[in-house]
Structures are given as C-alpha cells and as structure tokens.
Amino acid sequence: MKAVRLYAQIARQIAAQILASHYPLGTRLPSERELSEAFDVSRPTIREALIALEVDGLVEIRMGSGVYVSAQTPRGGKFSAIGVGPFELLEARRAIEGEACAIAAARLDDDDVAELRALFDSLVAAGDDVAKAESCDHRFHVAIAKATRNSAISGAVEALWQARLCSPQEKAMSEKAHRAGVGPRIDEHLAILEAIAARDPDRARVAMRSHLDKVLSALVEATEVQESAEFDARVTARRQKFGLL
C-alpha cells in the first residue's frame, strides 16, 4: 500500500472538516501555529497542506491576512493528485545536489565547464522572463549532475526536478513565489559556476547548499500568510527547522 505524504493527510483532514461545515464558507481557518499544534506537525507541513487545499479550490490564501474557506467541495468534484511537497523537495535537493556539485567539481572536463558557462549566460539573458529563466535553471542543475559521470546521481537529480514539475502543490507555491519576485538568482549560480570551474569540491558543495538554503528561505517568506505582527518569529522558526540559522 502506497504511503500518503504527511501534508496530504493533514490537507484531507482539514478538507473533511470543511466539507462537514466545521468551517463554514467565508470563515477564516485557525493560524498556522494553531493548526501546527492541533495536528502536532511542523509549520512547513501545515503550509504545504494549505497550498494543497488551495489547489483543490477549498480555500483562498490571502497574503498577510489568513486562509479563508472558499468552497465546500473540491474543484471538479475530486481532489487533485498528490505531488511531492515543496519544502521536502528542497530538503532532498540540498542533500543530493550539494554532493553532486562537489563530485562534479572533481570530475568535470573543459567541455562541461563550457556547457555550464553557456547555460549560465542563457540564465542571465533570460532576464525577467520567468519561464525561460526556470528552464535555464533546470538545465544548469541537471548539467552539473551529469558532470559527475555517475548515472545514478544524474538520474536522481533529474527525478527530483521532474517531481517538482509534476507536483500541483509545488507549481502553486512556485507561482506565489514568482508573484513575490522570487526567481533564479544570478549571483548564486555564478558562485556555483566559479567553484566548479575552479575544480574545488568543498567550495562547490558550499555554494550549492547555500543557494538552495536561500531558495528555501525566499520560498518561506514569499508564501507567508499570517499577520505581520508575528512574521519575524515565524520565519525564524522555519529557518531553524531547516538549519538556515
């Protein structure tokens, strides 16, 4: 029997409460802190659950205000497919791509460096075209994995990216982040490129992990939904959970 992801279990439980009119139309759900305590799970798990409920059309997430019930049945009459959670995906990417970057730095050749430089230049040229920048970002990371000369590593990295592309919940959270101005950062990719080109595995590992730490931090901030008075404390808690402090 296939295990259901924790955030999906929480989303289904909240959905059942909505369908049973425990939370009537137009009412506001409890805060992330309250939901986290009620379900005894982390706030990032609650965040992923709320995004899943929004994908299904059951709630509306209003930035800086809260989460409100917008329907009592899922959009189209059924729940959407369960994809990988955005935060768990980034945790996995940090672990796997950090090491992949270090291995690539020790094994890549001049042709690999030239390919990465070309992909970096394409990322720069993409400018404010988010779709093009995301495509360049994807190819840049996959090219690093391929430079490890290890098919298992490159396959794992590509699988993580495909999971990202196929997850409705990841797509919804990414769209929120893009609207908040979050996108591939040139300086972070340049740091990765320079470390790899210098054939410095330790520096490359740090550069990749630092990049993904910053992606996670930006995603947490861009999808904050509760009152601004508690903002700093909540963001700090999330950063501590993922080791960003």
Class based on secondary structure composition and strand pairing: mainly alpha
> What is the helix/strand order?
HHHEEHHHHHHHH
With strands numbered from the N-terminus, the spatial order across the biggest sheet is 1-2
**How many beta-strand runs?**
2
Determine the mean pLDDT: 86
Separate helix tally: 11
Distance between the termini: 38 Å
Question: Radius of gyration from the CA trace?
Answer: 19 Å
Low-confidence regions: 226-231
> How much beta, percentage-wise?
under 5%
**Main sheet, how many strands, which sense, barrel?**
2 strands, antiparallel
Description of the structure:
With 245 residues, the chain is mainly alpha-helical. 67% of the residues lie in helices and 3% in strands. The chain has 11 helices and 2 strands. It has a two-stranded antiparallel ribbon. Helix 3 packs across helix 8 (168-179), helix 4 (86-107) runs antiparallel to helix 10 and helix 5 (110-126) runs antiparallel to helix 9. The longest helix is centred in the middle third of the chain and has 22 residues, at 86-107. The radius of gyration is 19 Å and the shape is elongated.
